[in-house]
Design a protein that fits this description.
It contains 14 helices and 9 strands. Strands 1, 2, 3, 4, 5, 6, 7, 8 and 9 form a 9-stranded mixed sheet that branches.
Length: 331
């Protein structure tokens, strides 16, 4: 009996030691993002789908730890830390990355894409690859572009259906010169403002509205403060999934390939999930009383904004912009 118990105990000990050894040998990846960890948050979905794909492709080889809600700093801080190799990975807004690499302003060009399928095709192709490769000089490996969704306009003055409808409306815009110049070119009164001040500013009438993705509208209950939701789709919010070069260099060639495959798989799944969530969210916002409309003619907006494209062509990269417009059939 003693020998039988001893043998059983030894077997359990070996199994436990083996499990601990596997856990200790798993490569840890700390991934951060600035938004919440809700089921419909596109950044959270990106990070969790990446972890799921890694586990599917290489069970037990990677241990992904999640840091939402600015736990690792704001996006600029995280970019800097990823560049230095202090942070392993991030799901970050392209607009924030543009402060480090101006080519990422491409997606902020107003009314560049007519739909999400166009954006996916361009960003998965040579143009997107060129953008990601520019991060190598900063010590960052770009794995691909997940989807934050299109930004739309909400306000309390009138529906936006044609370019002239922007005239005189005070919109809070992202703190970006390109966004300020674009809204000014359409005749609006753009106002950069800290995000924490925006809801109160709309409620009190200090501004008339803002430009924002659908999921953020719903999460922050902007249906309580604004009346008109116009599906302008004026900017595509791409989420760059990035890792540090230091982290990537610590992996074997085989594991590096697994990371790249996992990112590609995660991005495809994230886009599919986000697309469904956008449809559900739009229905929710309409049910809350927002008046929803589509714009009449996207090309009319594009024509109005030609001077903005020219003003930022060299900043973004003339050849990159030209290549993008050619692939989109707009050259």
């Amino acid at each position: 009996m003693f020998l039988r118990r001893f043998a059983f105990g030894a077997l359990v000990g070996l199994l436990l030691c083996g499990g601990l050894a596997n856990a200790q040998s798993a490569k840890e990846i700390k991934i951060g993002w600035t938004t919440g960890d809700g089921e419909t948050d596109p950044y959270a979905i990106t990070a969790r789908q990446f972890a799921a794909a890694l586990e599917e492709l290489a069970p037990g080889r990677f241990q992904v730890r999640f840091f939402p809600n600015r736990q690792l700093g704001d996006e600029r801080e995280m970019l800097e830390n990823i560049s230095l190799g202090v942070q392993d990975a991030g799901a970050l807004t392209g607009t924030a990355i543009a402060t480090m690499e101006s080519a990422f302003q491409l997606n902020d060009l107003p009314f560049l894409y007519n739909n999400a399928a166009q954006a996916h095709q361009l960003l998965d192709g040579p143009v997107g690859q060129r953008m990601l490769e520019k991060l190598a000089a900063r010590g960052i490996v770009g794995l691909g572009f997940a989807e934050g969704g299109f930004r739309h306009t909400i306000n309390n003055v009138r529906p936006i259906q044609k370019p002239e409808d922007f005239q005189g409306i005070r919109f809070r815009v992202q703190p970006s010169n390109l966004f300020v110049d674009a809204f000014a070119a359409l005749g609006a009164s753009p106002t950069p403002m800290a995000w924490g001040e925006v809801f109160t500013a709309v409620q009190q009438g200090a501004i008339d509205g803002l430009e924002i993705p659908l999921t953020v509208m719903a999460a922050n209950k902007y249906y309580e403060a604004t009346k008109y939701l116009s599906l302008t789709g004026h900017a595509y919010n791409a989420i760059a999934l990035v890792v540090s070069q230091r982290f990537m260099s610590s992996l074997s060639a085989e594991d590096q390939e697994i990371v790249r495959k996992a990112a590609k798989q995660a991005i495809a799944r994230q886009r599919e999930i986000n697309g469904r969530n956008q449809t559900i969210t739009l229905q929710e916002l309409a049910s809350k009383g927002m008046q929803v409309n589509e714009i009449e003619n996207p090309s009319a907006f594009q024509e109005k904004l030609t001077p903005v494209y020219e003003a930022y062509r060299d900043t973004i990269g003339r050849d990159l912009v030209d290549q993008a417009l050619k692939e989109l059939g707009r050259n």
